Amino acid sequence: MLRTNNLGYPRIGNLRQLKKSNEAYWAGKISREELIAAGKGIRRENWLLQRDAGIDLIPSGDFSFYDQVLDTSLMVGAIPPRYHQLVEGKGPERELDLYFAMARGYQRDGKDITAMEMTKWFDTNYHYLVPEFTKGQQFGLFSEKVMDEFYEAKQLGIQTKPVLLGPLSFLLLGKEKEGGFHRLDLLDSLLPVYGEVLQRLKKLGAEYVQLDEPCLALDLDKRSRQAYRKAYRALAEQAAGLKLIVATYFEGLGDNANTALNLPVQALHIDLVRGEGELYQLLPKVPHDLILSLGVVDGRNIWKNDYEKSLLIIRDALNVLGKDRVWIAPSCSLLHVPCDLDLETDEKTLPPGIKDWLAFAKQKLAEVSDLGKLADGSGDTDIDARLAANRRSQQARAGSRLIHRHAVKQRVQGITEADSTRPTPFTGRKPKQQVNLGLPDFPTTTIGSFPQTGEVRSWRARLKKGELSGAEYDTLIKQEIEKTIRWQEQTGIDVPVHGEFERNDMVEYFGEQLRGYAFTGYGWVQSYGSRCVKPPILYGDVSRPEDMSVYWSSYSQSLTPRPVKGMLTGPVTMLQWSFVRNDQPRHDTLFQIALAIRDEVVALERAGIKIIQIDEPAFREGLPLRKADQQLYLDRAVQAFKLSSSGVRDETQIHTHMCYSEFNDIIGDIARMDADVITIETSRSQMELLDVFADFKYPNDIGPGVYDIHSPRIPPVEEILFLLEKAKAVIPAEQLWVNPDCGLKTRTWGEATAALENMVEAARILRSVK
Length: 770
Ligand code: GLN
Ligand code: ZN
Known about the structure:
Binding site for 5-methyltetrahydropteroyltri-L-glutamate: 19, 120, 125, 531-532, 577, 621
Mean pLDDT: 96
Binding site for Zn(2+): 657, 659, 681, 742
Binding site for Zn(2+) 1: 657, 659, 681, 742
Shape: globular
Helix content: 40-55%
Largest sheet: 8 strands, parallel
Bound molecules: glutamine, zinc ion
Strand content: 5-15%
Binding site for L-homocysteine: 447-449, 500, 615
Oligomer: single chain
Function: Catalyzes the transfer of a methyl group from 5-methyltetrahydrofolate to homocysteine resulting in methionine formation.
Radius of gyration: 27 Å
Distance between the termini: 79 Å
Low-confidence stretches: none
């Protein structure tokens, strides 16, 4: 039999049990024992599910209460010194609070310890806690979680394959916290801990161990490649007969192929979704005793696997390697897809026709198992029926009238250079906009949302349940908008916003109004810790049947002579925060969205809106992992933004907003977007992020965030003024706007108003001294 391999399974639980248990524990509502039991329950369910699905190599250790990289830091004892006061001893009970302190910070008993830094896991929307390293750091086995979980499964009668983050990726994903060394210098002291873990696992009865090395999909220098060879030589020696699997994913191996293929391990997992076609370069080079785990089922997206297409690939591998050296697997851990499609029963948001094209984690296990049987030819009786059903789904999707809209495709094909360029350069637009808008120096504005209070959210919930009529909901939202506009007028915000009260989420709100989007009820994916997101499904050609935001924006504008800023989500963000169709190139979908947004921008202008903001917080997120692919992505992202923003007159001012972004290497592309004003998050970096704009001599207007909206803290006037003075020192005064870092939806009204009053006061002082 061909063997099936799974790399990891979602640990949030299909109803987000982990999120709920974690948050209950943090709030002191359940005990540590109860939380630990909840984790155990999820693991048990996942293992049984995988066993019943016919997976041969079932992962253990992939469960995590917060993050698998943090688990690894704890395993090897990489505990930054500021937490040492919390280390009371070993054992899962005592470990847990230390663990959460590292993840979330610790403010209790007069102690105030900051959390570890969090950053994006490769190009996913998952965030990991960045390991911290110091010079000459020593490691030692601390957490025995991976051994415990292997044993736990064994007690249930399930032989698992422990999963570890490999030593090289662990080091490479971390950060040096002081100068004078490189984190790879620490390899020698790290490896013995891994060696000890492997030996312990072997003693407990493990046969295979999976070492995740996703960094093998990145651009690596010579030193890192050498370190790979050295490390795995050492581990193979220490493994004492244990069989090692190195798992790579999120990209093809590219120029790391020789390094990866020649590591002294038993099996290598490759991502054949991202690295489509790479198999044929690898096959002739696979050493005679290496097993290849073929990642053919997409672990990053929710589309049903095309069995026939996968079988072609699998058979090509079988012809070269033979049955004993081919495993079937998802492309990466299933952490990045929702748990179970069977839970989706609301035909209004996810019509059955579309549901038939999808597979979530549980369904993907069945796909892996089916493919194993089909390729093996030793299938059970109804495998042929499943193959036929799969073929029918693929055909139904390919020809579906739900997906294909000729006019949309044609419009994308007809896009011209002129469509994505504003007719006049910024220098010519700016004076016209000044006349049109009549704003003071250092104009004040906000990023869009005002507090989404429980009350506002309850209106939407009641509307959904039918407890509020459309008209009643409308009135309530209008009252909230009016209150917000009046307050901004009184406070002296020069460019008010309507507050985004009518929106549940900046992507979902527009997705619901566009054709081509579907939604799930339970399609949750872990973003970080207990936070989950529910990305919409972009399944078909995108078009905009009606105005989306014009109603609320015009209403808001009717309340005040000040220019109210219209608020839209940009095409890159609409794409990036969704599950995107895989039956056409991503950029085709991107341009379709861009055209839909463009129409909305034009409609807003026609309705008398003079300033329109197109948010692109996810602009950088889609950046490919390999440098060689990045410029093409950036070119398309810039073009999409310009396509959406260039349909207006010179007098209309286009804003964009980006948060959490590094701009260093992409500042030229940001400038090419040619937004009249860009607002960015800068307060937490004390305006340091602005230097990139200054050095580049960024030509258009900039609103560097003057306070951190993530914190309830009210920034004093002097503090804001200090930051503004700093900004003024590097950016010409006539280019500067004054605004917070991001939207205010998570703040209370008290916090939002107090902070904004101080912000307006700071701008006033700045004007008076000019
Ligand atoms: N306009 C959005 C808001 O103010 C922007 C959110 C974001 O950047 N993530 O909430
Ligand atoms: Zn933001």
